Amino acid sequence: MRTKASEHPNQHTPVSTPKENHNIQTQIEPSSKVIMSTSITIPLEKSSKIHAPAPKTVSFPNNSSLKHSLFLVTLFIFLLLFIQFKALESPLHFSWPLLGSQLSDQDITSMLRDSVTFLPLKDLRFSKEPESGHTWFMSSVNDTFEPNESEYLYFPSNSSKGRLLCFSAHDPHDGAKNSYAFAWHEVLPHGAILLPGLTYVSDTYYDHSNLWHGLNAIAPFIAWNMRKGCVAPARWVLFHWGELRTEMGNWVNTIAEVAIGKAEIETFKGIEGPKCFEEAVVFRHNHGAMSEARVREVYDRIRCKAREFCKVEMDKIRDKKDVQMTLFLRTGARSFKNESVVVSVFEEECRKAGNCRVKVEKTDNLSFCDQVRLMSETDILVTPHGAQMTNILFMERNSSVMEFYPKGWEDLAGVGQYVYKWLSDWAGMRHQGVWRDPEGPPCPDPSDKLQCFFDFKDRQIGHDPAYFSTWASKVLQDMKEHRQAISVNGNDLSATRTNFCQCGTSV
Fold this sequence. Notes:
Number of helices: 13
Oligomer: single chain
Order of helices and strands: HEEHHEEEEEHEEHEEHHEHEHEEHHEHH
CATH superfamily of the largest domain: Flavodoxin domain
Radius of gyration: 46 Å
CATH topology of the largest domain: Rossmann fold
Helix content: 25-40%
CATH class of the largest domain: Alpha Beta
Low-confidence stretches: 1-53, 91-100
Number of strands: 16
CATH architecture of the largest domain: 3-Layer(aba) Sandwich
């Protein structure tokens, strides 16, 4: 007989009262399949009623399904082992185009050309400190340093991985629009032209026209030329703030030609694409890290080569017994208000000293060689502050310099007012001090210091006869004592001799 539980297998027997015992009922079918039905009586509170969840049924795959799965897994493992074995016997060959073994030389060349990256010559990220460190000109490249020399860049070199320097630079107004890149000789950028020989690349924060600024810009190239066999470059490439410049001032250009050799200034006219240089040296710090002794050697070479170029006969000049005092006067800005009074004061002191003569010249009346010859003859230079003072490097060592300023310069001009004191020291002269005019109208707006400086900058210079007389007398006496020391001890070994014009000669 079947129980009620077997007739309704998904139903449970009612839960008995707490007083009833647990009942377990089991029925065995004739087919020997066993179905178990369990009835559990749980003591509950009178107000509670619990319904147990239906039993979960777990199914297992039959034997045929399991055998089929095992067969597939075994077959897959066998195939993997077979492929690996064949790969060891004969390496697989892929036709992936990026693998170098399958690229043609033309493909590689094209890819390398496309990989050349041009960067702005003037990096505006460094506009607050444009002259510091790597500067804002070609800022991605660090300088090379040599003892006592100005820092520089050279291409091709190890630092450039053997690559050449290339420019795409035509803009004369915005250096950020001009650009540079590096490329191997065999894979120059598309449309590039290779310029043969050595190229001098100069970037200056100032300019190549002013005598002082131009001299400082080309001085490191003269030093480079001296230590590299004095071989002239094929060309110059000039920049100011990364902006292309196509000329130097006449005086600066002449200095470059006599000290280094004649070379064209590249304008890039008619060249549309990039320009790459077979060899290039870049200076972007002016004197930079050059030692004072090295600067003096450079100036000695300039002096000697300029005298040689202008056919100045120094032996005759040195044989003269008189001291020459030269008044090198300006016209217009920073000229003396009363030149005749100033000239008469120095002429009188020269007469008192004896063995002395005064020569008066204007800065705007002389050619380059006239200036070289005049300064070579000068023992004492009397002149207002200005670019014409750069000519003092043509004077003999131990010559004297007397400098004059308008009112306002001391407080407003900054360190730039001392450049000719520095130049005198570097060139081996004796800077004998300055006179600053205390007279003149005040600045209209003292709160605007820059405008005040512009107001004072080009004023004329007054005079103080008593002070000038005392000052001139002292400087003349110093020069006479120096001359006497030379006559006692023999030739002045510090003077520049013509043999120092030879390449590689140091003094």
